Amino acid sequence: DRDLMALAIGVAAIIMFIGTGANVMPDVVQALQGLGLPPDRLLSNALLLNIALIIFGLRRYRDLQEEVQERRRAEERARELAETDPLTGCLNRRAIASATDALIAGSVERGEHVGFLMIDVDNFKRINDANGHSVGDNVLQACAARIADLLPPRGLLARLGGDEFACVVPFSAGMPEPVEDFARRITMHVARPVPIGHLELEVTVSVGIARSDAHAEANAQALLHMADIAMYQAKKTGKNNHCWFDPAMEKDLRERHELETALRAAIPAGEFVPFYQQQIDIETGRITGFEMLARWTSARFGHIGPEQFIAVAEEIGVIDDLSEGLIRQALRDARDWDPSITLAINVSPVQLRDPWFAQKLIKLLVEANFPANRLEVEITETCLHENIQQVRTLIASLKNQGMTVSLDDFGSGYSSLAQLQSLPFDRLKIDRSFVSPMSGCTDSATIVRVISSLGEGLGLPITAEGVESAEIARQLRDLGNMHAQGYLYGRPESGSETLARLEDMGLAARPRPAERDQRPPLSDVA
What average pLDDT does range 284-292 have in this prediction? Predict the structure, then answer.
């Protein structure tokens, strides 16, 4: 309102200046030349007032212009903030959606289709946790810059959030090869060390690809959904690669989601139970211990093998709760075994990253009143490459409490002799992939023999997994004294079945319930 009033005053002042000036200015000029009478004082004052008002109006007009320009700059900045990611400068999720829909609409007229690429940085959470968020931000900026370097004309790049990026590229109808080549170059170009200060971080990405001509009503949301499914498949098949969307993947993803939901509900419902596979002294046939194995009979899906649910439990972050419940029950079961029989448990790589894992395990031992020297903790060989110092600290903590620690699946990873010497393991377990084919494969037999000699040289006892025939057992006996486990000695059994068999062999810490029932009551004894 004030701006309109100022504008009106300025216009009126100009009109009055023209009218008044026409009368006053000739008199002023003549007076200055000394040729006439002075101009009328009232008109002169009115002219000066008009001039002042005109100057005021011009200044206000200039201020208005500056305000308008500043407002436009602010609106442009707000639009940029609303459409771009502040960390990488890429488009954001909302902007890529509208831009993709516009690109799809325009591509129809040009006889083109659109490829949508979902790009996820592999193991980014581990990079963040190990090096801090500032390093993680630098990694994301480097990835965004490397992808942008490869972006074709009219291509779009966005950061969807976290460690996820998206690219949208047009391609000629019936010729999707450039899109696949673009995805291949992304995985190759990004997979180079990222120098950050004194660090050089190895970074890879997994890429999922969807195409607009593969869907009847393709839009940004549908393409993002399909590319996301394809990206998950790329991770599932080994990471650092790309994968095209296939409708069958959606079915797999739905089943995976249902499995995750069932798994989360199964833990508090007590559907996971420990089973036990015996370990024997191969020379005497005496039972030396049992390895605890997880079993799940789902109320919805029936029996599900650990090769399926363990990886899922690790990915969705419930492996700690799952493992803790199993260990708690296993310690209760093992209290009823002969004190000479040990209990072996497996530790997930995820649990090894928990600095409080040793304390949690000690708490479970105290709760169950189970002696630490009867518990054997098995760590897989592949865990050694994630954080060797943390593994060393954990082993030391467990051994200080009296537990024994075994290196499980030895031969399947890439541990070095230096690591074996520096880590205080108590036992080596030879991976079943070498033991099971021994009778028909000289290479496997040679590997087992070498590992056995290595264990003897390092002073580490050996356990051979996967002993499934008498011939394999004979070959192992020829290599010296060791422990063995496998189907030759029986399949894994439930806690009650294990206890019943031990009671039959006289290896139970307590008599059978039936025997206890046959004893006279304490009142009768008295």
Answer: 95
